[in-house]
Design brief:
The protein is an alpha/beta fold and 280 residues long. The protein has helices at residues 14-25, 40-44, 71-75, 104-108, 146-154, 173-179, 193-209, 225-233, 245-252, 257-260, 264-278, and strands at 2-6, 28-32, 47-61, 81-85, 90-94, 114-129, 132-139, 162-166, 184-189, 213-220, 237-242. Helix content is 34%, strand content 30%. The strands form 2 sheets. The protein has a 9-stranded mixed sheet, sandwiched between helices. Strands 4-5 form a two-stranded antiparallel sheet. The radius of gyration is 22 Å and the shape is elongated.
């Protein structure tokens, strides 16, 4: 079973929920797919076992075969290739950060003058903590292909375990890449106008992806703004985490919620059972 933990905006408590859920389950996987700013390890403190490099495909030009026809430049929708032809010879300019690694230029070069190369864009780290398998994807600084690193990170999902995916905030491509294929999506939100607005976007995203979902209201107070929306659209509220200084203090010290407040383990056990009931 794959459970993704997402939100329309940052700072709602996705990692708090994901780590607490993994610690409650025990023999599970937690996969940090917030590759631009992963932080699960700060709360789980796993023992790191392995690290893998994530590469992306790039074109390499064989200048002895290249006739500088410019066809590769014409077919590249990302403008990663630019070709200049002179009276004698020419030049091919490659812009690596624009390349999406589709390989179209390699396949369609009429002179077969382009072959496959690779360059690193991130890394995957694996570790363990109290029987929990920790997997983290991390995008290299200045790189933009977050979905590529996320897809490679998700290849380590064990189908025989419950996998908890900590997705990046928002509803853009990295978030879609993270939650796609999940059996259930937990949407973590807060009872504010901004929280509601971004929850609505995240909910629409799960509908497009046809993934069943439910809501956890973090920093819950008397304001019913989120509850009214959930009732209106038939979105189940799975749990409420109150707005308490004590919880914030544990978070600031890197202490998971179910460690600092063990009584929450029962709540997360009930959460797991509720999720199983929504999965067809």
């Amino acid at each position: 079973m794959i459970i993704s933990v997402a939100s329309g905006k940052g700072g709602t408590g996705k990692t708090t929920v994901a780590v607490s859920l993994a610690l409650t389950i025990g023999n599970a996987q937690i996969i940090d797919c917030d590759v631009e700013e992963p932080n699960v390890r700060l709360f789980l403190t796993p023992e790191i076992k392995e690290t893998y490099q994530v590469n992306t495909l790039i074109p390499e030009i064989d200048k002895e075969k290249c006739t500088y026809c410019g066809y590769c430049s014409k077919i590249c929708v990302y403008n990663a290739l630019s070709v200049l032809k002179f009276e004698q010879g020419g030049e091919v300019f490659f812009f690596p950060h624009l390349c999406h690694g589709c390989g179209g230029c390699i396949l369609l070069c009429p002179e077969k003058a382009i072959y496959s190369g690779f360059r690193p864009i991130g890394e995957i780290t694996k570790g363990v903590k109290e029987g929990i398998e920790f997997i983290e994807g991390k995008l290299n600084i200045s790189e933009v292909l977050a979905p590529k690193v996320i897809e490679e990170t998700k290849k380590f999902i064990d189908p025989d375990k419950i996998a908890i995916i900590d997705a990046p905030p928002g509803t853009s491509c990295p978030t879609v890449a993270s939650i796609k294929g999940a059996d259930f999506c937990i949407l973590v939100t807060e009872p504010t106008p901004f929280g509601l607005h971004d929850l609505e976007l995240a909910y629409e995203m799960t509908k497009v992806l046809n993934i069943p979902c439910g809501v956890i209201i973090n920093k819950s107070q008397e304001d019913k703004i989120v509850e009214n929306f959930c009732e209106k659209v038939g979105l189940p509220i799975l749990m409420k985490i109150p707005f308490k200084r004590e919880i914030a203090e544990f978070y600031s010290k890197g202490i998971p919620l179910v460690v600092g407040m063990p009584e929450y383990k029962e709540k997360f056990l009930n959460l797991i059972e509720s999720i199983k009931g929504f999965i067809k």
